[in-house]
Amino acid sequence: MRKSFLGILFSIVLFFAAVLCNLDLSSLPTYAESTSWTSSVSNITYTNATVYARVDVSERENFQWAGCNFFDANGNLIAQAGEVTSVSGTYLNIWYDINSETGSKLVLSPGTKYKYQFYVTYNNIDHFGPMCEFTTLSNSTPSSGTTTQYDVSVNYKTHVQSYGWQNFVKNGTTSGTLGKSKRVEALQIKLENNGYGGGITYRAYIQKQGWQGWKSNGVSAGTSGKGLRIEAIQVKLTGNVQKYYDVYYRAYAQKYGWLGWTKNGSDSGTKGFSYRLEAIQIKLVKKGNAAPTGTSMKACYDISKVPVISYTTHVQNYGWQKEVTNGKVSGTVGKAKRLEGIKIYISKNQSGTSGGISYKTHIQKLGWESEFKSNGAISGTVGKKLRLEAIQIKLTGNLANEFDIYYRTHAQKFGWLGWAKNGAISGTSGYGFRLEGIQIEVKYKGDSAPGSEKNAYRKLDDFYLYLKNNLIPKYGISKNNQFSGVMTSENAYKINWLYPNGILSAKVYDFDCDGKNEMMVLRMDKKYSREIDGYYYNLVAEIYEKENTGIVLKASKVNLYGTCNDEVLYEKINYDVYFNSYIVKKNNYPYIIFEYKDIGHYFSDGDGIIIFILKYDGSNFVEVWKHSIGEYVATIAELETYDEFVQWFKNIGFNVSKDNISWKINNPNECIITNDKERILNFSSSDINGGKGYSNGKDVIFKYRYTDYTKFSNVLNGG
Q1: Cβ distance 300 to 267 under 8 Å?
Q2: Which residues contact 158 (CB under 8 A, 6 or more apart)?
Q3: E strands within 492-637?
Q4: How many C-beta neighbours within 10 Å does residue 301 have?
């Protein structure tokens, strides 16, 4: 290093004065009384030490030079360190690693006392600090110095994306950012007040590069200006200080958040997932003291430790497929080929955790297998042409405590379903749909799912089965030009006048409230031809399980409405529902709204309009609200069976028997529709067909608009 002429000259004069005059150098005054010095020593080892000083001046000065002279115990000058500063201010910090700053020319001896003196130059005058001393380590005995050297602390800072270098923090304080999705790109760590000797070393696991070399004592680890994230770190103490302290640290990782604490060189962060490290905390804990407390998460998540799952499927016409591993598709997509069997096993496990994998399938005609299969055994069938419809997969043993197993299936008509995990069902039930493909993936607990977990299992559940078997006519709906009949007997189709004129169609209007209309979901399936006494249509339920579902049944066609807005549903009831109508709203508001408009033809004692709401509680339908025009008010409490359904009709005055539920249908184009409540209440058969009543076979529907939406909304919301 360059040294000022005055500094060198002064050192020479000082040296000869000390030798010739046997002066006590520590008692020498400085050249100016306006300076104030603070000196200390740290990182003392057997052969090295780091010395530190701070000089304060009374007025702002331009510091030209800073240096330190090193002496043996007798005051003999043995080395110098110095440098041009060009710093302006009222104070200056100076520190030197003796071996480094003297170019390794000065190698200290163990158990030896040394002296040092800092100086600075400003206004072309050298200003000297006090003479200080220290002793290098000998036989693991802590050194003595001029300051307290046993309360060691760790200082650290991070270089953060978009923000740059943060300020130094210490002893467990967070460095970095939380919740801002900013990567840590570099870090510096150093010890303070280390009177034991030794130091701290650390390294970073860097995007695209892997582990970087070890850095020590404040040198930057990581990168700067390259936009590369740090994904994991290792930190450890060196030298004598590690006999007195453990260094604990933890990382805040993308997707995981705060990980668990680890110590003394172990991995902290993630490896192989391409997740950024966003913040760190570091603590020194004295030997024997308790470790820091925090999250139960692992300290490091290493993708190489995730068990590898291998699986193969037996596909219609193709047979067994080639084995695939974590997350890849086994089976087919877009070829309408059924899965018939599957084998799954763990092909590689470097996690150090024991366990296995079990699975079972739901098979066409056979249902669920009675027992789980394990570790490569066949689940399903081969050679029987039976489709798989659903599957359950789970980890066993200690693996289940550390990892989650995710899987999803590609199902007929539905396509890819959501991800299921840990033994949950993936697939369909009640539809008779085949599985066509499958993906399986293992992840650490706490990691996010591979994708959406919504609708992993599509079940035609008891709610819809009740609807299908009770509210929707059990044996179908048939219609000719005059009548609409609800078939309640297997022989009903033999009635000659029940000639159907079309297939029940259904269109779904925005089931999931995304502003888009959905697909056709209901149809009538022709089972018999006209040659055998008529047509027999059976309702095939393909009702997709959606939230807030509305079903409106209108004579010979079915319209489905789904909405998240009660006002929309209210309007549908007001304006879009005619004659025998059903509206179903499921999940958030699990109600059935049934509107029956009658002109008195099938009531024994009068005319009326009855509207009521049934709530499905998971097993029964319970009346929660009713509205009537005329004399008739529904009085039901529960409807569990078909007999109870028939009895309910009887209770409201509808002349019905178990084998004969039918009524005449109107033609809306030939009917009177009115919101006039008085006309409805005073209606008689003389109002139509010139006073001849129903002799022309034409009926009338009345429409009464509800004006109390608030009451209706309160009912839907549990009021």
Answers
A1: yes
A2: 165, 166, 175, 176, 184, 185, 186, 187, 279, 280
A3: 506-509, 522-528, 536-541, 549-554, 557-562, 581-585, 591-598, 608-616, 621-630
A4: 25
Residue 635, pLDDT above cutoff 90: no
Q: Which amino acid is at 496?
A: N
Half-sphere exposure in the Cβ direction for 412 (13 Å, CA): 17
Tokens of 617: 């509680």
Q: How far is Cα 26 from Cα 17, in angstroms, rounded to an integer?
A: 13
Q: Give CA–CA dist 79/182, Å, rounded.
A: 46
pLDDT at 139: 56
Highest mean pLDDT among 99-108, 245-254, 551-560, 625-634: 245-254
pLDDT, one tens digit per residue, over 567-586 is 444 444 443 333 233 333 33
Domains of the chain: 5-135 (2.60.40.10), 153-303 (no CATH), 306-458 (no CATH), 462-716 (no CATH)
In total, the chain counts a number of residues equal to 719
Question: What confidence tier does 104 reach under pLDDT thresholds 50, 70, 90?
Answer: low
- What CA–CA distances, in Å, run from 379 to 296, 328, 375, 617? 36, 19, 11, 36
pLDDT tens column, 356-383: 999 999 999 899 999 999 989 999 999 9
Kindly report the pTM of this predicted structure: 0.49
User: What kind and span of H or E run contains 643?
Assistant: helix 642-651
Cα 608 from chain centroid? 54
Q: How many CB atoms sit inside 10 A of residue 248's CB?
A: 23
Nearest to 438 by CA among 280, 330, 323: 330
Alpha-carbon gap, residue 54 to 447, rounded angstroms: 49
Q: Is-contact 581 558, C-beta < 8 A?
A: no
